[in-house]
Amino acid sequence: MSELDLQQFNVGIDLALEAKELAESAGKGPIPGVLSEVSEDGGITITRLEVTTEEGSRIMGKMMGNYVTFEVPELRKQDTGLQDRVATKLAQEFANFLERIGVGKTANVLIVGLGNWNVTPDALGPIVVENALVTRHFFELMPNEVAPGYRNVSAVAPGVLGITGIESSDIVQGIVDRSKPDLIIAIDALASKALERVNTTIQIADTGIHPGSGIGNKRRGITKEILGVPVVAIGVPTVLYASTIVSNSIDLMREHLKKHANQADGFMGLLDSIDENERLQLVREALGPLGHDLLVTPKDIDQFIEDIANIVASGLNAALHEAVDKTNVSAYTH
Amino acid sequence: MSELDLQQFNVGIDLALEAKELAESAGKGPIPGVLSEVSEDGGITITRLEVTTEEGSRIMGKMMGNYVTFEVPELRKQDTGLQDRVATKLAQEFANFLERIGVGKTANVLIVGLGNWNVTPDALGPIVVENALVTRHFFELMPNEVAPGYRNVSAVAPGVLGITGIESSDIVQGIVDRSKPDLIIAIDALASKALERVNTTIQIADTGIHPGSGIGNKRRGITKEILGVPVVAIGVPTVLYASTIVSNSIDLMREHLKKHANQADGFMGLLDSIDENERLQLVREALGPLGHDLLVTPKDIDQFIEDIANIVASGLNAALHEAVDKTNVSAYTH
Amino acid sequence: MSELDLQQFNVGIDLALEAKELAESAGKGPIPGVLSEVSEDGGITITRLEVTTEEGSRIMGKMMGNYVTFEVPELRKQDTGLQDRVATKLAQEFANFLERIGVGKTANVLIVGLGNWNVTPDALGPIVVENALVTRHFFELMPNEVAPGYRNVSAVAPGVLGITGIESSDIVQGIVDRSKPDLIIAIDALASKALERVNTTIQIADTGIHPGSGIGNKRRGITKEILGVPVVAIGVPTVLYASTIVSNSIDLMREHLKKHANQADGFMGLLDSIDENERLQLVREALGPLGHDLLVTPKDIDQFIEDIANIVASGLNAALHEAVDKTNVSAYTH
Amino acid sequence: MSELDLQQFNVGIDLALEAKELAESAGKGPIPGVLSEVSEDGGITITRLEVTTEEGSRIMGKMMGNYVTFEVPELRKQDTGLQDRVATKLAQEFANFLERIGVGKTANVLIVGLGNWNVTPDALGPIVVENALVTRHFFELMPNEVAPGYRNVSAVAPGVLGITGIESSDIVQGIVDRSKPDLIIAIDALASKALERVNTTIQIADTGIHPGSGIGNKRRGITKEILGVPVVAIGVPTVLYASTIVSNSIDLMREHLKKHANQADGFMGLLDSIDENERLQLVREALGPLGHDLLVTPKDIDQFIEDIANIVASGLNAALHEAVDKTNVSAYTH
């Protein structure tokens, strides 16, 4: 499979971490132009990826830029102690991220919660918006009375194309034109290849949000090129790719067929002749029309989406407002 | 009480019908410059009010313009037959209303659902948006393939100031600038003085939405003057004024005290010396700070808000798109 | 594959219609001891199945008894006219069903809504309970004042084992012991093999509810044998079997591989050597542990579950209470 | 006003603390037979009341027994640090409470969540049930494998009379007969006279739940006398009495009228001749039929009900299971 094919294939992979894994397994080794660094602390694994060259971008199928991923496998256990630690770490990491990409401490911020509040796994963005600590109206109405340590923050949930008839990107553009933020933080629900990453992973990226990513279908991106304002994207996988189920089943079927050696020969031979990436691509093509209408979710999705949205909101609130106590970040969500 | 006082008082009354009742009871008779016409059919009472002069507007405390009110006391019984009839009549009346105020059949429409989708009685607007038949994206993406009989309709729920930090009016302005509609239809949840009107009444007005009306606090209107596009407002009372409770209780206390004639003399004398309007105004003043944080709702609000939102959406869909079968209007909500 | 194997396999198939299709495709023809009759009217297909012999039951993998299935492919279009027709037909069919199995017009009924109100696709039962026209309290408190044409109906949603720690069957048993109904009507969300059946199909059966059926895991049945009271089950498929996705993908992959004839030979040969049933069984085995935690739902599930629950409730209300107008059945849901 | 009158009046007051305040203000002093003790720590005020004599019970209008009240005015600020402290303190206090009334550490517990999950302010009980750590099914299915430190706990939400047609008390009785708990913990949403107590106060009482208390109308109690098992009630006020609004308004009106001294004389004289209790009673009578259908809630009720339910659930989980870490109690809600 050529690099070009891989790029086309990977374009749809939401998590940079998974795109890297796939590309490495296909390319049998590290990808040139992609720097990565991993740290682990108390059950929270943070991976910092930087795609520094066009070649790396082409191979990995992700835009050049910075990607930070939090993986917290225990996050589904609803331990509020752990949740608070994650929110605190997220606040620190996000503050550093903003500094690294040159966003100042007084830059005005517009938080954009993408997705559909009526489809549970797509409601992440709107829920974060609800819990964001917004202050823009205070700066507008009584600028001299805003306590020090708060910056100008606003937040909107533009809805999805099927409900509004208007591209999210256009709605955001209109609001940007009126409210003049210096930075957009766009929140979106993603898909993952691994069940264990669903609702336990948070990705920060400075590449904006590109058409076709996330659960909803976007035709126009939410990027600096389009909006004229830098865009940092925060994503959480809340659904599985249907292809994951198919792929897992085929693996298990293969195991099963091994017991009937004579039957399995042809099958295994065939399967072995197709590498994992190609197989996934076939499944994705096959599921295309069907997959568009289906969501594969953990049974407990309704219970966890709110938790992870609160962690993201708490982390943002503490990262954006210096006045928010960094040691008890969740005290300020509403 | 002077006319000026009355106007100040009535400014907060959402329903033109109630403003007229109050003004008439205070003024002991019909209001000059206010035309009204009532028709009844099968449990649906339609009142068409027109405030034609500045004097009438001042006395009634409502803007000059056209107001149409549907009253359907049985609407809470959840008879889908009745619901369909109301939606059908609403479609006809709304189509006539648009014609009367000069909106053409191909005018592009932006539906704006005001309110907070997380506060049940304030969720009317967002629910109507969800159920509106939007087509703008089809006109944009494949203009030659849109079936005849559909017009260009889009719909947004801009959120409330406390959540977004941006005035709804500003968000709508930004979206109007980008999407260039010819008409805005703004949906808002209102307050009523009468329990029996809650969730059973629909008001259409061509006056737009003014600061301070509806459940949420607006500081800037959604009007033709501000947005440069005509605005038709559709409102449904979903909460009671807290003053209604107080007023009803005082009436009942007075009845009670009558039985102890000697005690009641002073009280009744005093109460009789204050006319109904003045008393209401006192109560509103008194409740001011408290009332702001309180909602008085029927116990069954969660169950009915969805029904009436569907009626409004069905009526709008049939009024706006000629292709929608006017005899089965609710077939097109989603 | 032996009949015995098939039975084991089919035990998990919720819809009798799908069990019959599978058994017929495996057995190459009609199943002995299974009577069936199909009628169609205005987009509503009604199939009446009767499994009359133990042989038929064994082959089909479903209990002996009566099964009536409504299939209404257009039901997702949210046409309230069609919804009302389905509810009306359901009322008639259900009334006939009760008569056929010997339930009298004054028999006291307990409606049991199985499932978890917090997991959207599993919330069917609890939503039907909410919308059932219950009267038992009126019969208890003022027996002489209940209008003629109503029977004694009560309704409970017992919750699921993971939330309560008590088998639904035990909770129902306790309530039956206290409230002494003559008949139980149990509502449950099912799984289907076909996307087009999800939220468009209703199954009535006089066989009760058996361990392992429905979305939730039951370990003890809700049957006449256990509760001492006849149990009619009403089920609606609201999720897909994950195996459906796998199976569809494999079919599509096969198509794809045909284009590369030399590659596909072994694969196709192998796939052809496994018949559809065996393949499905393999997939189910393979998905076992994974599938348990996953739900595959149409994206629009949140919007449709309420509609179909209302249809079921409306149909039940009209079937159970003679006083409910059979021509406008949905007027009585609340 | 005689003691008898007061008792009739207070019967409807849900919070023992408010009943005591009212009785003391009426009786001009402490109530005989009522012991009370107050402690404060870090924003959490705990009041332990014991009604030890029939005279005290008659005067206060509350059953003889133990009442513990948590008041945490800052609880609405959604500081998860404070929430965790409250849950932790609640766990300790509740464990002590059980010990004090003689409930052993291995007693089997059934948690009963009263109320209607579809009416936001009445959903407290069902939400606590969802978040309770239930173990009964493990004890039933694999008794030898339950880790030490867990006791046998189950949990049910029986629904409300208007939905089920069966008294909650009867449903609970049936479940008690089948599942044989040693103790019932009943959770219920209450009404308060003070806005600042709504969603910030938790009451524990060993008196069970009596007809007419809470938001829903109960006709039969959930008490040891009826069920044969001790009942501890946990209540949280989530709505205001409508009479509170009326009473507050009248006070404010009085202030207003003072400015027009000649007008106010009669009114004030009259108001002064009615003491606070009598006035409240009048208002309650007056509002009787109206109040029954109305809920007066803070605007933010939807956001806070979940928080306080989680606190109650976390506190219960830690109090009931020794294995639950008392220093991080919220780690075990799901």
From TrEMBL, chains A, B, C, D:
Keyword line: Hydrolase, Protease, Zymogen
Catalyzed reactions per annotation: Endopeptidase action with P4 Glu or Asp, P1 preferably Glu > Asp, P1' hydrophobic and P2' Ala
GO BP, sorted A to Z: proteolysis; spore germination
Propiece residues: 1-14
Enzyme Commission number(s) from the entry: 3.4.24.78
InterPro entries on file: Pept_HybD-like_dom_sf, Peptidase_A25
HAMAP family linked: Germination_prot
Function summary: Initiates the rapid degradation of small, acid-soluble proteins during spore germination.
Family of the protein in this entry: Belongs to the peptidase A25 family.
Protein name: Germination protease
Organism: Paenibacillus montanisoli
